[in-house]
Amino acid sequence: MTVFDFLFQFFSDYGYIAVFGMLILCGFGLPVPEDITLVTGGVIAGLGMGNPHVMLAVGLAGVLIGDSTMFLGGHIFGYRIQRIRLFRRILPPQRFSQIQVQFKRHGLGLLFVARFLPGLRSPIFMVAGMSQRIAYLTFIAMDGMAALISVPVWIYLGYFFADNLDVLWEHVHNVQHLIFGLLGLLLIVIVAILIKRKVKARMSSKLGVDEGKGQD
Q1: pLDDT over threshold 70, residue 7
Q2: pTM of the model
Q3: Per-residue pLDDT at 101
Q4: Exposed, middle or buried: residue 100 (CB in 10 Å: 0-12, 13-18, 19+)?
């Protein structure tokens, strides 16, 4: 049985509450793809077992509450979470340190991008909470903007192609590739901007030194 088959049966039996609960568990780091969960919710609606607009609201609520739980957990318990053995298994110290470094470099931008990074989303949100530098309203604004892009795409994709799963999965893969392509392009742009700033700063510093020598 595939993940989709399991989710389809589960959602068919229990409806919106099942979708909502599964998305919250995804926010906790459950190894179930969030995009497949949302697409399956859309398929349920497309087959007449739900309303797509209600499913969208349920999807947004589940996503944001799950993400908020990780952020607030990090904010409240801080680095004490690292003492929990299960947490160390899910997020080894080395990987945790790498995420910390990236968060310090990119801050709010990383929060936005994290919504599109399966497997890294929950740890990044928790590290953001641990940092004590991001207000909850700021976090929910960044995460919410990203969710308003991703959640409707997956829900309505499942809804409109519910009666043709072969075409649906083809579109799902295409959208996934498009997202990763856009993220790669964004990364290239960010690196280019950082390099340009660094070169400009060095040139300004060198110019200042040369002017100082000229005055001497």
Answers
A1: yes
A2: 0.78
A3: 73
A4: middle
